[in-house]
């Protein structure tokens, strides 16, 4: 897979590079992410099987590229905070470039979490409570984690909905082979959920 260095942070390097290209040629885009894609694909010699647009978490990206190592894949690390302003332009360019398989991967850490509750003045927690926390404390912690995960999933779903309704993607013509897949990564478990844009559901990613 070819992992494109982030045009803003430049925090990722290439690994397991394969040659990929497109016959698409036009003036370089003013969008830095589209420009990076244009440059990467124009400089190589083989067709791109899949474009992965993923939040820039190296661990998640490694899992994705490891699963697709036999294919010609281009990976664009794109911080999820930038999706609202950049993702629709990237997708529109990819469709025009004739890339038929696109995978978008979101991340559970892309919503700011609430800070942990602080002890009130004069309140202490005994040594036994630290070693054997009460059921109420355990349930409160689990509930807080679930609320954060639900908020991240909702944020991801809303972002995709807004992007797919954007002006850049209206009236785009796709080939019969075109497919758009969307995944959501849960960082504390290292697991992926498959998100359905049609019905808004998240389901475990299992082999069919």
How would you describe this protein?
The protein has 208 residues and is an alpha/beta fold. The protein contains five helices and seven strands, in the order βαβαβαβααβββ. A seven-stranded mixed β-sheet has the order 1-3-2-4-5-6-7, with helices on both faces. Helix 3 (83-96) crosses helix 5 (135-164). It is globular, with a radius of gyration of 20 Å. 26% of the residues are buried. Residues 7-27 have low confidence and may be disordered.
Q: Mean of the pLDDT scores?
A: 80
* Approximate strand percentage: 15-25%
The number of strands is 7
- Alpha carbon gap, first and last residue: 24 Å
Strand order of the largest sheet: 1-3-2-4-5-6-7
Q: Structural class of the helix and strand makeup? A: alpha/beta
Order of helices and strands: EHEHEHEHHEEE
Helix content: 25-40%
The gross shape turns out to be: globular
How is the biggest beta sheet arranged? 7 strands, mixed
Rg is 20 Å
Helix count, DSSP H or I runs of 4 or more residues: 5
Instruction: Show unreliable segments.
Output: 7-27
